[in-house]
Design brief:
681 residues; 10 strands
Length: 681
C-alpha cells in the first residue's frame, strides 16, 4: 500500500469528526434531519480548517443510500465514490483554474441534466473568489433558481472578494481556527496511530506553528516525524530546523538585561555561525518576549506560552518591567520590518540587541509624568493644608478679626469692647487707641509688639537701682541663625501655618491716618491692626519677614511660594530686597515673576519695593548626610545627583552682600560711572 500523508489519511468523514467547527456541524445536521436543505451554501474561513471536508461530508449525507441522513454510512457505493472523488454526480471544480465565463456556461448546460445514480447533483467550487466578474454574473441566475435536484457548495478563504449578489443567494457558514489544545490532541492521536512517541513540548511547538490550521499541523508533523525517528522531541526539532531554543534565548536575554552587551553580541555570532537564519532568530526572540509579557500579566497557560512557565528565565522577568518588555517587543517587531530593506540584516540585529542592553534605563512617558506629579506633591507639601484642616483656623482668624474691628469701632466706649479667648489678642486690643490702657498714657507712642524688648535706661541720680532684670518680650521673634519657614510665636497662638491668613483688603476704621509714611508694615494673621506693625531693619536680613511673605504668597500662588522657599536670606537696601539662589533655572523662573513679587511686597510692606535675585556660586560636592526618601526617588527616576550647598553659611553671604551694598552707597559716583558705562555699551 502506498504512503498516504497524515492530512489525507485523517480527513474527517463525518460531522462528528470535524475539529473546532461544532456550530457548522450541528446546523447542517439539524437542517438535514428536518429536510430543510438549501440550494446553495457558502463556506468561508482560514486555510486548513475543514471547508472542503465539510462539503464532501454534506454531499455524502445527501446522497447516502440510507439518506438523506446526518450520519452517512460510508459503506454504500455513493459514499465510497464521494470519498474517493470518483462520483459522477458530485463535481469538484477548482475556482482558481476555471475562472472564465465559458467554464460557468458549461456548468449551466450540465445543470439541465438530472443526476445519474444519486439523489442530488452537487457542485463543489473551491476558491470561488478567484472567478472573474463575468463568471459571477453568469452564475447568478443559476444559483438563484436551480433545478430541485441541484445543489451548489462554494468554499473560499477570502470572503470579501465574493460579490454581495452571490452572498445573498447562499447560506453562509464561517469556519474558525482550531484551538491549540485541540490541535495538540489531534497530533497526539496521529502519532499514536503510527506508533511514534512524541513529547508534549514538541507537539505544542508544532501546534503553535500551525496557527490553528489542522492541515498545516499535519504537514509539519509529517516533516518532524521524518527526521525524529521513533521519538519526537523538542531538542531534535530545534537542532534540525535551526531554531533557537528557550535555554539559549534565556542566556542571551539575561546578558541583555544585565547590560552585558559584549556577551550578547558574541552569542549572536555563535548562533549565526551555527546556521540559524536572522529571520528565524528574530521570530524566536519575538515569541520569547511575547511569552515573558504574558507571564508578567499573570498568564501561565502552556498553550499560549508554548513552553512551561518554569522554562523562562526569572532574571529577565525581574530585570524588566512590563513597560520595558513592551518596548523590547516593539524593537524586534520593527527590526523584522526593517531588515527587508537594510544594507546588512546582521548589523540591524546587532544594533537592536545593543539597544536592548540599556533597556533597564528606559523610562516611559507615563513614568515621567508620574514622577513629575510626585515631585509636584513633594514641593506642595507644607505650602497649604486641605480645606477641611484649614476650616477651624480660618474660623478662629475671622473671629479675631471681627473682635479687632469691633474694638476699633467702640474705641470711645471701652466697656463695650469684646474679649477674646486668646490672651495675646486681648493684649493687642488693650494697646489700641481708645482703649483704657492706651488712654492712661496719652503721651506715649504706640508700642511695637514685634520689636525687641527695650533695654533698661540708666538710673537717674537719686533714684534707687533696679535689681530686677528686665522682662523679655515673649512675643518678639528670636533671630534665627538661618532662614526658617515658620516664625516663633506664643504657644497660645499656635504655629504660623495655623494662624496666618491673608490681609483683609477692606480697610477698617482702626487704620491710623497719622502713621508716618516711611514706616513699613505687614498684616499678621488678621489679628493685629495695621498700625501695630514692625519695620524691616535696613541693611540686614530679616528671616521673619521672609517667612511671613512666603506664607502669605503661598495662599495666592503656591508654586511661586515654593520657588521662594529655595532662596537665601533677604537683604533690604533702600527700596530693594535682594536674595541669592544656587540654581540658574530658579533664577530665571524668579526673574520672570520679579514684577509680580515686587508688587506683592510693595502691597505687603506698604512702600515701593523692588525684588532682585542673584546667582550664588556653589561647590557641587556630594551631600554626606542622608537625603529624604522622596529626594532619592526623584534622583533615581530622573538620573540626577544630590549636590551640597556652598561652604559659606547664608548669614556670611548676607553679611558680604550688606557690606558690598554699603560700599556702593559710600561711593555713589563710582557706581554711577559704571552704570553710565554699561548704558553706553
Amino acid at each position: 500500500m502506498s504512503y498516504e500523508v497524515t492530512a489525507t489519511r485523517r480527513r474527517p468523514q463525518a460531522f462528528e469528526a470535524l475539529a473546532g467547527q461544532e456550530f457548522v456541524a450541528e446546523t447542517l445536521k439539524n437542517a438535514i434531519q428536518s429536510q430543510k436543505i438549501a440550494h446553495a451554501y457558502l463556506f468561508s474561513g482560514p486555510r486548513g480548517c475543514g471547508k472542503t471536508s465539510t462539503a464532501r461530508i454534506l454531499a455524502k449525507a445527501l446522497n447516502c443510500a440510507n439518506g438523506p441522513t446526518a450520519t452517512p454510512c460510508g459503506k454504500c457505493q455513493q459514499c465510497l465514490e464521494i470519498t474517493k472523488g470518483a462520483s459522477t454526480d458530485v463535481i469538484e471544480i477548482d475556482g482558481a483554474s476555471n475562472t472564465s465565463v465559458n467554464d460557468v456556461r458549461q456548468i449551466k448546460d450540465e445543470v439541465l441534466f438530472p443526476p445519474q445514480s444519486s439523489r442530488y447533483k452537487i457542485y463543489i467550487i473551491d476558491e470561488v473568489h478567484m472567478l472573474s466578474t463575468s463568471a459571477f454574473n453568469a452564475l447568478l441566475k443559476t444559483i438563484e433558481e436551480p433545478p430541485p435536484y441541484c445543489i451548489f457548495i462554494f468554499a473560499t478563504t477570502e470572503l470579501q472578494k465574493v460579490p454581495a449578489t452571490i452572498k445573498s443567494r447562499c447560506q453562509q457558514f464561517n469556519f474558525r481556527l482550531v484551538p491549540i489544545e485541540r490541535v495538540k490532541q489531534l497530533l497526539a492521536e496521529a502519532a499514536a496511530e503510527i506508533n511514534i512517541q512524541a513529547d508534549d513540548e514538541a507537539l505544542y511547538w508544532v501546534a503553535r506553528e500551525s496557527t490553528g490550521s489542522v492541515r498545516d499541523a499535519y504537514t509539519l508533523f509529517d516533516q518532524v516525524a521524518a527526521f525524529s525517528g521513533d521519538h519526537i522531541t523538542y531538542d531534535k526539532i530545534r537542532d534540525k530546523l535551526g531554531l533557537v531554543g528557550v535555554d539559549r534565548l534565556n542566556a542571551i536575554f539575561e546578558d541583555a538585561a544585565q547590560n552585558k552587551t559584549q556577551d550578547a553580541l558574541l552569542k549572536i555570532d555563535e548562533f549565526l555561525q551555527n546556521g540559524v537564519s536572522i529571520e528565524q532568530f528574530i521570530v524566536n526572540c519575538t515569541d520569547y518576549l511575547r511569552s515573558l509579557l504574558l507571564i508578567r500579566a499573570g498568564i501561565t497557560k502552556e498553550a499560549l506560552l508554548g513552553q512551561s512557565r518554569e522554562r523562562y528565565s526569572g532574571v529577565v522577568l525581574q530585570a524588566w518591567n512590563p513597560i520595558q518588555l513592551e518596548r523590547a517587543l516593539s524593537i524586534l517587531l520593527q527590526l523584522y520590518r526593517d531588515i527587508r530593506y537594510s544594507l546588512s540584516p546582521r548589523y540591524e540585529l546587532e544594533l537592536a540587541f545593543s539597544r536592548l542592553s540599556w533597556l533597564s534605563q528606559y523610562v516611559s512617558p507615563s513614568e515621567v509624568k508620574k514622577a513629575i506629579d510626585e515631585a509636584k506633591n513633594l514641593l506642595m507639601q507644607g505650602s497649604h493644608s486641605t480645606p477641611a484642616q484649614n476650616a477651624p483656623q480660618m474660623q478662629q482668624i475671622q473671629q479675631n478679626r471681627t473682635i479687632v474691628t469691633q474694638t476699633a469701632q467702640n474705641s470711645q466706649n471701652p466697656q463695650n469692647a469684646p474679649q477674646s479667648a486668646n490672651p495675646y489678642l486681648n493684649r493687642v486690643i488693650t494697646q489700641m487707641p481708645g482703649s483704657e490702657q492706651a488712654q492712661s498714657a496719652p503721651n506715649s507712642a504706640p508700642r511695637n509688639i514685634f520689636a525687641p524688648p527695650p533695654q533698661n535706661p540708666a538710673p537717674q541720680a537719686g533714684a534707687p537701682a533696679q535689681s530686677a532684670p528686665p522682662q523679655a518680650n515673649p512675643f518678639a521673634p528670636s533671630a534665627p541663625s538661618a532662614p526658617q519657614f515658620a516664625t516663633s510665636v506664643p504657644p497660645d497662638m499656635g504655629t504660623m501655618t495655623e494662624d496666618f491668613a491673608p490681609p483683609d483688603p477692606t480697610p477698617t476704621s482702626a487704620t491710623l491716618s497719622d502713621q508716618p509714611a516711611s514706616t513699613s508694615s505687614f498684616s499678621y494673621g488678621g489679628a493685629v491692626p495695621p498700625q501695630q506693625t514692625a519695620a524691616l531693619p535696613q541693611n540686614q536680613s530679616d528671616s521673619d519677614f521672609r517667612s511671613l511673605a512666603i506664607k502669605e504668597l503661598s495662599m495666592r500662588d503656591p508654586m511661586l511660594a515654593s520657588s521662594l522657599y529655595q532662596t537665601g536670606a533677604w537683604v533690604k537696601t533702600g527700596n530693594t530686597v535682594t536674595t541669592q539662589v544656587s540654581s540658574s533655572f530658579l533664577k530665571m523662573q524668579l526673574d520672570s515673576h520679579a514684577k509680580n513679587i515686587s508688587q506683592f511686597l510693595s502691597e505687603l510692606y506698604n512702600e515701593p519695593l523692588q525684588f532682585e535675585v542673584t546667582l550664588k556660586q556653589i561647590t557641587t560636592t556630594p551631600v554626606e548626610q542622608t537625603a529624604p526618601v522622596q529626594v532619592k526617588l526623584l534622583c533615581d527616576v530622573f538620573k540626577g545627583q544630590i549636590v551640597g550647598h556652598s561652604k559659606k553659611t547664608e548669614q556670611e553671604i548676607a553679611a558680604e552682600n550688606a557690606q558690598r551694598a554699603s560700599e556702593q552707597s559710600a561711593h555713589p559716583s563710582e557706581t554711577n560711572d559704571e552704570t553710565d558705562d554699561t548704558e553706553e555699551e
